[in-house]
Structure formats: structure tokens, C-alpha cells
Amino acid sequence: MKLIGPFRQVVTLANLPLRGKLSDEQLEIIVDGGILVNNNKIEKIGNFETLKSENQDLEIEAIEGEQVVLPAFVDSHTHICFGGNRANDFAMRNAGKTYLEIAESGGGIWSSVQHTRNASEEELLKTLLERIDFLISLGITTIEVKSGYGLNVENELKMLRIIKKAQEQTKATLVPTCLAAHLKPKDFEGGNKEYLDYIVTEILPKVKEEGLAKRVDIFIEKSAFQPEESKDFLLKTKDLGFEITVHADQFTPGSSRIAVEVGAKSADHLEATIDDDIDFLAQSDTVATALPGASLGLGEKFTPARKLLDAGAIVAIASDWNPGSAPMGNLITQASILATFEKLTTAEILSGITFRSAFALGLEDRGKLKEGMKADFVTFKTNNFQNVLYNQGSLKAENIYIDGNKI
């Protein structure tokens, strides 16, 4: 066994509930604490000197100076496997161009599809691993990664195989999601329904056969797929044995209700969610995932996280890192900014980027510092954990641990 510490503060999140609003007074903070690790899991959390005296033949990993430790962060919604760059989209959008005008000039999602299709597997793997390393440097050790820039059998499988290769080369946990239903590709002959049927009959069976993903996503929006055809598609994917998640209510309301009705693990975006649907979400186990990076990238309003939490919803926060609407990728900065606009407590933010995000991915073995949990945690060189969010991402992680080992 290994004892790591002492830490000025151990912020465990251990006693916090899965859903609803939280006060900072609910946070369990162990002063001068230590973490006892055994076989990649947390054996015990407590006072460092007490743990040291109670256990024999320990390997001691001493922490120098004043540091605080938190559960490692979870980013439950990213699009970080992509080719190309859409800086011109950002510039055009800020200059007042519409979505249609940007698309007509060669931008938009279709631009990323073309770049990703044309990129070599080596290039896509290299850039994906670079983005994973950046997220790890922030203290994020569990990362969802979507396909969705291939949009045909060959290139969706190419993306998912690259994500699988990346998993073999990183210590972070990658959670692949098939987003072949990102939008109907321009080169597909047929309508939306035909394309969704093509995904169900041609793409997903091969994804399942190769074990490339257990999750399926769809973008329900006027510019992508309509509610009823999306609901039919989601039910078919469930019948194939996939878990589902939904891009919901980004610009128009209504699709979060579909996510709940089909039993989706999460409904992500929700910037346009109306009050009735907030209550509907709150009465379900579907996680409401806020994506503040998209709001910042597009200049749109934020997910109504305060209303969702007050209604009793499970609220997670993810980066939505993608080349178009959310190019920043810094989850800590985004979550800190969301907190100021939505008046979220530190406990709510920390829960939203740890165990609540993990729940959205079906992973309940991480996100809290407590006995039996995966020993993933992050330290910051400060004497007060509040400084992590207060500095809005400029206070960098000092050490990142995966399975109890510093990486």
C-alpha cells in the first residue's frame, strides 16, 4: 500500500448527493489529510499522521509544500478527434455572418468532415493524443470522445478506430461515442430518414462487431435531425444494445424531452430548454449537461444550470471541445465562468465536473475521494481549494494521479 500526503486540504466530495442543489457547507474537507492507495483504488482517506501510524510497511509518497487535492475531473462531452481548423468560422461569426453564410463559404461542420476525411490516420491520432495530453494537464483523467466528422461507414469507423488506438497510448480513460448522426452529409443520396436507417443498418453493426463504442449520440436541431425521426432512431439504437446521449435544446426547445422519454444517459447543451422541460428533466435520471464552451464560442446564452439544480436535476458540466463552436477546450475556465453567470456554488461546480459527469458516462467508480473508488485525483499548489475556481483556470494543476500513480 502507498500513502500519499500530507495535503493541506483533501476535498473528498464523498457525502454529496447525485442530484439537486448543493451548498458549500456540505463539502467534506480533511485538513492535513492523506490518501491511502491499494491496487489502483482508494483504501482510505483521513488524517495523514493517523493513517501513517495505523498502517505498517507503507510506501510513503511525500507531498512537498502546501497543496490541496480534489477528485480528478471528468469531461463527459468532447469532439477532440478531428482534422483541420475553423478559425475563419469564428472570425466570420464575430463579424456578423450567419450560420448559413458561413456554411456557404466553406465553413461549418461539413468543413470539419472534409478535413477529417482527408486527414491520415497518423495525423488524426497525433493531434488527438495532443489534445488528450492537454486535458490531462488540467487534471481531467476521464474523457468522452465522439466521432461525427466521418459520416459514412469508412470514415466513422476510421475515427472510432483511432480513438481506440489513442486509448492504448494514454493512461486517461477514453469513452468513445458514435455520433454518425451529427448531420446528414452532403454526399449522401437520400433524406434524413434514409441516412439514419443507413447508420442503424450499416455503421452501428460494424461499430458493435469491432467493440469500438457502446454509446450513440444524435444532434436534434432544425439544421440537423428532427424530433420524431430522431426518437425513432434512438429507440432502434437502444434495441441494438447501445447507451444513448443526445445533443438537445441547443437553439430550439423540445428535444430534451425526447432524451428523457427514450432513457438517454444525458441531454447535452440545453441552452434553449424551457421551464416545463426543466421540470421534466429534473424528475428523470437523464443527466443535464451544460456546455459553457459552446455558449462562449457562439455568443449564446448559458444552460439554465441554476434552474435545473433548483428543480432537482442531475447537472454535469463538460467542455464540448470541438473545432467550430467550442474551440477553447479548457473545462476549468468554462466551469468557473458558468458559475459567475448562473450563480453556482463551488460544491455544484466541482460535483458537475467530477462524479455527476462520471454518472453521465455510466461510470460510478470515480469522481469522489472515498474508499473503493478509482484512485484518480489532482493536486494544486495552494492552501485553499477555492482558489482553483477563483483563478478561472490560471491556477494550473500541480500533480495528476491515475490509479494512484503520478503521471
Number of domains: 2
N-to-C span: 18 Å
Tell me the name of the CATH class of the largest domain.
Alpha Beta
And the CATH topology of the largest domain?
TIM Barrel
**Net shape:** globular
The biggest sheet, with number of strands, parallel, antiparallel or mixed sense and barrel status, is: 8 strands, mixed
Strand content: 15-25%
Compute the average pLDDT. 97
Q: Low-confidence parts, pLDDT < 50 over ≥5 residues? A: none
- How many DSSP-defined strands? 16
- Helix run count: 16
Any idea what the CATH architecture of the largest domain is?
Alpha-Beta Barrel
Structural class: alpha/beta
CATH superfamily of the largest domain: Metal-dependent hydrolases
Q: Radius of gyration in whole Å, from Cα?
A: 21 Å
Q: Level of helix content? A: 25-40%
Enzyme class: hydrolase
Domain Amidohydrolase-related: 68-384
Organism: Chryseobacterium oryctis
GO molecular function: imidazolonepropionase activity
What would you note in describing this structure?
By secondary structure, the protein is of the alpha/beta class. The chain is 38% helix and 22% strand. The protein has helices spanning 48-54, 87-94, 99-104, 109-118, 121-137, 153-168, 192-209, 227-239, 255-261, 275-282, 292-298, 305-311, 331-342, 346-352, 355-360, 387-390; strands at 2-11, 29-38, 41-47, 59-62, 68-71, 73-75, 140-146, 173-181, 215-219, 243-248, 266-269, 287-290, 315-317, 377-380, 397-402, 405-406. α7 (192-209) packs parallel to α8 (227-239) and α10 (275-282) crosses α12 (305-311).
